[in-house]
Amino acid sequence: MRVGLVFKQITIVFFLMLLAVMPITIKAQLDDPTRPPGHRLVLPGGKKSDAAIPFILSSVRISATRRSAVVNDRAVESGDMVNGAKVVAIYPSAVKLKKQGKIFTVRLVSQISKKSRAR
Length: 119
Fold this sequence. Notes:
This protein is α+β, with helices and mostly antiparallel strands.
């Protein structure tokens, strides 16, 4: 009987320690292998830098009534802001952005490249 009581006490202590560690584990971000490269450029201290984050166009959706795109992991439409740049236009394979008076285009590029065989 004494062994059973000690086992219960050890089990309770173990679960209490587990509960204490859980919030730390939940806050830790897991690396998502499906995210595009450059999605998580973080400065020391955990702050994201808008200047360090390139504009990455992941997808474009065009319907008869609506155009939207995913830029830097954020769904946007014309007129929206993303990392300090305004979305000017959305095209089938590109998005036109305006930042600090400069207009530039971010293109949708496949990450898959075909290697040629050396002969």
